[in-house]
Amino acid sequence: MPSSPSRRHVLALGAALGVAASAVPAAASPGASGRSTGREETRSLDELYKAAVADGGKLVVYAGGDTPTQQDGTKAAFRDRFPDIDLTLIVDYSKYHDVRVDNQFATDTLVPDVVQLQTLQDFDRWKQQGRLLHYRPAGFSKVYDKFRDPQGAWVATGAIAFSFLYGTAAVGQDAPRTPQELVDPKWKGRIASSYPHDDDAVLYLFSLYARQYGWDWVARLAAQDVRFARGSNSPGDAVFAGQKAIGIGTAGSLVAPASSPARFVVADGHPFMGWGQRTAILKQAKNPLAAKLFLNWQLSTERQNNSFNGWSVRTDIAPPAGLKPLWEYPEAHVDGFPRFMADRAEVERWKQTFALYFGEVEGAPTPGRLGLHPGA
Questions:
Q1: 40 and 136 Cβ atoms separated by less than 8 Å
Q2: SS3 of the chain: helix, strand, coil, percent, to 5
Q3: pLDDT, tens digit, 9 for 90 and up, residues 76-86
Q4: Do both 139 and 60 map to the same domain?
């Protein structure tokens, strides 16, 4: 689920961006995770850039997402700022990237230097296995404390929220204001959703709906002739294309301009979900200096001030007027998502239960089939 949250509609909507990990035996023991590196990075981005170029000038990043082009904006911005770094950024579902990395560990064929994924539980496991470089980029101490590892093994570089959205022209004056209203028969045949049992962030969102509204609500939604598809980009794509009036299980923003053709919905007292997408440098990275440059750049005030949804992972960057930091919305359940992701047996129960209601996941993976060593 997410980096980051089609996010190709992000500029128009400010929205619609953008299981994991069977444990592969690791050569490193839990005790080999290493000590904290201490202070935060003090070198400037230009100094880090110079050092990274001198070190070979290459960087490979595995990023969670839904389409091959979803991170094109990130790639373009990085290459514009650091033109002498040869960046390869591969987008795939996080649940495939994590086991891909595990297999690369097992076969001594590691490709990425940096992982930026939605599968939060992997970062705790990799830390215990000694797989992550403990490193504090500049601004690390300003990151919301639940969005960073105390020893610097990982740090969240993006704050993302999932809820539902609607097309303003399609719903007219009758816009749904809460998820509870989506089971009204007037929306039958007019809803698109990503499969909750294919994406763990969407799964968590649907689990919050089920807990608050009950299984009768889930059954009524299943009777709404919802068009399910793979990829959390798919609901927004359907709404923007005028194919559906409502999209569920997609990323979004509350700072869309008045001219936007769609609205992302967050309602007081009704659940949505938010999280910090974690990023880490692998200890076996071939290009550690370029990896450090990437983390410092992602966490810089310049990048954080220009997030697509107005939310930053940093506590010293105020969101736009009318917004609170993502972690201050109790309805976002920010602290609940890491716990949910850590209980893989419970995740599987939710997945299979939703499959009973909504049917099995169908369709090819939206990023394509990338094999074992993309970016090599």
A1: yes
A2: 40, 15, 45
A3: 999 999 999 99
A4: yes
